[in-house]
Amino acid sequence: MATIYLFDVDGTLTPPKTTIHPQFGSDFAAWMEHKEVYIVSGGSFVRILNQLGSKIVNQSAGVFACMGNIFYEQIDQVNSRGYEEWRIVYENDFKAPRDLYSHLDATVNASAYPIKTGKHYEIRTGMVNFSIVGRNATMEQRKAYGKFDEEFSERAQIVEKLKREYDKLDFDIGGAVSIDIFNVGNDKSQIIERHFEEALKHNSIIFVGDRIPFPGNDHSLATALRQSPNGIAYEVETWEDTVELLKTPPFA
Ligand SMILES: [Mg+2]
Question: How far, in Å, from the CA of 247 to the mean position of ligand 1?
Fold first, then answer.
């Protein structure tokens, strides 16, 4: 039985929202050789490329970006300019309820958190990424919000409230400051039925993520995999945990 490896990016291969540690980057690229490895992230393809670098991305069998809402597969050829060619295998649209965005604006205004930097939501393929502190926040401001949220669980409360109002939407607490919003079912678990259903019957599929407990954005995929005798999910807290994990079976 062959093994297929799936890795989350933020908090699993890299510090949240940052590029991979250079030494780990080259070690991980070396580890990937002769293995079937996929990347499964909430970020866009370009962001994943910026975070992991082209060596890791080109060595992967495919990239599930935007929570698995868009899947890029590598075509086995290099184009005339010397770049690896990728094709989009599938791509989902996000269907927003009519009043969703005004509701998100109202949620920002109602928050007791004092620092709001603007750009509170970003529409991505098949999903919306929402944050109270806003996408213009500096690294320091993001960290400060992360601390606030740890203490007061603001994101969990927002999710609970939004969930009551929009039953066709699902919500994940992703990254350090944001909430991912998507149509029910269009979370990371969708990659199983859309791509790995057949593979899971004959291969062992191993996923590594840092947000496996509910309502983390790795929860749905870990749960889907654990329903199969061939699926395994490992939880890490930081990318340094992943470094250690890769030294042990079934990784080493
Ligand atoms: Mg993560």
Answer: 20
